[in-house]
Write a structure and sequence with these properties.
Blueprint: H1 2-16, E1 20-24, H2 27-38, E2 42-46, H3 52-59, E3 63-67, E4 75-76, E5 81-83, E6 98-102, E7 115-119, H4 122-132, H5 158-173
Parallel strand pairs: 2-3, 5-6
Antiparallel strand pairs: 1-7, 4-5, 6-7
Helix pairs in contact: 1-5, 2-4
Length: about 200
Amino acid sequence: MFDIVTRFENEIAEYFGAPYAVSTDCCTHAIELCIRYTKTKKISIPKHSYVSVPMTAMKLNIDWSWREEEWKDFYCLNNKIIDAAVLWKKNSYIPGTFMCLSFQFKKHLPLGRGGMILTDDKTAYEELIKLGYDGRTRDKPWAEQDITSIGYHYYMTPETAQLGLDKLPNAIKTPPRRITWKDYPDLSLRNFHPL
């Protein structure tokens, strides 16, 4: 069943010009997995962003701060992790980074839910699959695996991947709407209170 997921990942990687792509259930979890994998301790977030980004930093108990930035298409959380949730551009992968995409229902490729991590690091690709799939690989049933590392239940289902494959040709030929910092409220004016 996960052949469909791998096929969708490969199609997205090819479109964006990345060597590898790891699917997730949403962009927020893609960002979280990248923070966990890189053992990031601090990020900087544009004031005009999506609310789940600072909430993820709070959830992971990492140091974070607001910054002024008039971004378009994507923004960097640090020198490795990029929130590219609204990006849709052929061959736009930035080498040496983890670019996190979104397929939420308002995005250019709307699947209702879903995300992707683009990378050029083969080891990271293999480890991020396990990190997002309960510590397991996709090559055999989990009960037959010797699961040695922790993982999270953040994987993309084959049904979502198939929907992505079905909608991808139209997304490729349709020009995307340009989304920038102006499409988001200033979150620094909000008070987040962790429980």
